[in-house]
């Protein structure tokens, strides 16, 4: 997994040596200023960043090479940092502020789904304490989600930081703000540690998930503060062995597994552990959402120690998701949801239904556990309810509102 200790040591060395103009090169530090970055926040510095990256990545003699982004402002057009690299580990140290282009035209002819991408790298350590500013308001203003009748509206906007096919890597101590769409995307990765991030975007910014994980294994996500316009953390298809803990979430849509199986594809999600989550004013608490047309499974998910303040749907499973909400027809297929537990949920719900388990008649939810749940309404002397449809399991240790699970 990641090398946070190494980054701390390197940060100290950088601080000590930046004042010595020539000495830091012997420490295998690759300062983007030495490769032509202007750092005025106006001129595109992506070519200088790529030159520094290439020098660090391809240097056969550098041990723990470190690309350094000093404490200045850097405008970057869309860029991909590619591996594999010569060294066992490579560090990307952000001390300043990286700014996205404000105009969507910077992506013309390029992949509109990404801004800063890291691909095919083993031992990558991205660390702060700098900032990554997506400046996404132009994208939000033409989003099809909120402007469906706008001619030329966009369904796909850039993710701020995307890790693709990376192994044994880390992302830590970064401040993310105002991504055009998802802030952090982990795709086709193995052995990633994400820690000590803050992620912020307006509550009404479309599709600005905090962290999304897709087709990846063996992740640790810890100590994250997230407030956005979509899921704080979401788990996608073909993902397993994920530990998520110590999360502050709100505003946003909570912690989600899904949505899964939208294209009718097979889903495989298992061994997801989520604990110590603090939710404030979110749409959901813990949610699993699958499309009716999908198949496959979600199994072995644990949600525990959730502390809810004014949460609309603290516990929710929706196995009947379709394109026209409220008009879903029963299908003879679906994603099997089994062995899922919700325990130690406390706090307040802002709607009447605190537990809503909407499962398929064809492929019911099984092995569901509700344990030690104490949820109250934000309305004085108002009782909450639970609704279960085709949801089978059992309850332990006191559940309020009362469990509706079928045995």
From TrEMBL:
Q: What is its main location?
A: secreted
> What Pfam families has UniProt attached to this entry?
Glyco_hydro_28 (PF00295)
Q: Which UniProt keywords apply?
A: Cell wall, Cell wall biogenesis/degradation, Glycosidase, Hydrolase, Secreted, Signal
Span of the signal peptide: 1-16
Instruction: Provide one Gene Ontology biological process annotation.
Output: carbohydrate metabolic process
Localization recorded for this chain is: Secreted, Cell wall
One GO MF term: polygalacturonase activity
**Which superkingdom?**
Eukaryota
Record-stated family: Belongs to the glycosyl hydrolase 28 family.
Q: What protein am I looking at?
A: Polygalacturonase
Q: Which organism is it from?
A: Cannabis sativa (Hemp)
Q: What is the lineage of its organism?
A: Eukaryota, Viridiplantae, Streptophyta, Embryophyta, Tracheophyta
């Amino acid at each position: 997994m990641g090398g946070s200790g190494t980054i701390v040591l390197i940060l100290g060395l950088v601080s000590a040596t930046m004042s010595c103009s020539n000495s830091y090169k012997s420490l295998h530090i690759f300062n983007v200023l030495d490769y032509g970055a202007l750092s005025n926040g106006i001129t595109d510095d992506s070519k200088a960043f790529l030159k520094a990256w290439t020098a660090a990545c391809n240097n056969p003699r550098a041990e723990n090479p470190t690309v350094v982004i000093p404490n200045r402002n850097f405008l970057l057009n869309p860029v991909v940092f590619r591996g594999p690299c010569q060294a066992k580990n490579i560090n990307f140290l952000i001390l300043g502020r990286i700014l996205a282009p404000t105009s969507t035209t910077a992506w013309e002819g390029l992949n509109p789904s990404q801004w800063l991408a890291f691909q095919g790298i083993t031992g990558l350590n991205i660390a702060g304490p700098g900032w990554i500013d997506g400046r996404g308001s132009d994208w939000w203003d033409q989003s099809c989600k909120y402007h469906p009748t706008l001619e030329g509206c966009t369904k796909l906007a850039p993710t701020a930081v995307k890790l693709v096919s990376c192994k044994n890597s880390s992302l830590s101590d970064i401040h993310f703000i105002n991504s055009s769409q998802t802030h952090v995307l982990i795709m086709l990765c193995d052995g990633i540690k994400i820690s000590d991030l803050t992620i912020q975007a307006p509550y009404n910014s479309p599709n600005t998930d905090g962290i999304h994980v897709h087709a990846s294994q063996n992740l640790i996500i810890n100590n994250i503060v997230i407030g956005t316009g979509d899921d704080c953390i979401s788990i996608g298809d073909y993902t397993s062995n994920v530990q998520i803990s110590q999360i502050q979430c709100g505003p946003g849509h909570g912690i989600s597994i899904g949505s899964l199986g939208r294209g009718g594809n097979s889903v495989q999600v298992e061994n997801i552990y989520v604990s110590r989550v603090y939710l404030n004013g979110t749409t959901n608490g813990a949610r699993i959402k699958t499309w009716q047309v999908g198949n496959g499974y979600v199994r072995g998910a644990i949600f525990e120690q959730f502390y809810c303040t004014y949460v609309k749907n603290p516990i929710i499973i929706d196995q009947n998701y379709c394109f026209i909400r409220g008009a879903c027809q029963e299908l003879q297929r679906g994603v099997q949801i089994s062995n899922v537990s919700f325990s130690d949920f406390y706090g307040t719900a802002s709607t009447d239904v605190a537990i809503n388990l909407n499962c398929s008649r064809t492929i019911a939810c099984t092995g569901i556990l509700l344990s030690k749940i104490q949820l109250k309404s934000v309305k004085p002397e108002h009782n909450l309810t639970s609704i279960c449809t085709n949801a089978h399991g059992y309850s332990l240790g006191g559940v309020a509102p009362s469990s509706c699970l079928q045995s």
